[in-house]
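Hi R.,

Here's the chain you asked about this morning:
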Amino acid sequence: MNEPDGTRNADTDRRTGPRERDAAVVRALLELHGRTYAQEAGIRLRNTPVPLYRLLVLSLLLSARIRAETAVSAARALFDAGLGDVRSMAESAWQRRVDALGAGGYRRYDERTATQLGDGAELLLQRYRGDLRGLREESGVSERLQRFPGIGPTGADIFLREAQGVWPEFAPYLDRRTREGAGRLGLPASSRELARLVPGEELPRLAAGLVRVSLDRKAADEVLAAAQV
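And here is the predicted structure, written out as tokens:
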């Protein structure tokens, strides 16, 4: 069991061993909260232009100060409205984007975000011919992602946490937010140590679960209870 400050309980570690304890916690985390945000938004993430663009849109929406559930709903609404590829987004009317965001419940930031989505789509077409794989081939990917309107450091982190499954050269991408979640669960603080707890293909799920735990102490308690540590 963990102490309130997230440190390991020595009695528990003597009984189960730290490796067994960490493995149990990670299994519970993946089972309860290991669904990626891309999956929640209906994105079948692959290293192809449309899924990568949809992940960029989702990253923009998630980076605002708004509930993740609302951001995911707004992303689904945009895609359902036929705005799931870069050219459709660039050619769409501003009001159409506003209406789709509103349908997804993304009303507080809808007008500004509608502008950012249009401008970002234009930039992607002009700079990379609509294909984010061109950005992958350049140096300083995080900084280049932040050139898209509405994508700051948080948005770049969101994108790379999810994209590491198809862009493995960025793995393990376990940023400050994921490490905060690890601390709540008494897991290792090092990105490298955390990455050793799962196969490489599970890193996006691990990252998503740790983010949820960092945002919700109740989720952390659920994981620890399920792991029986």
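One quick note: The two ends are 4 Å apart (CA to CA).

Cheers,
M.
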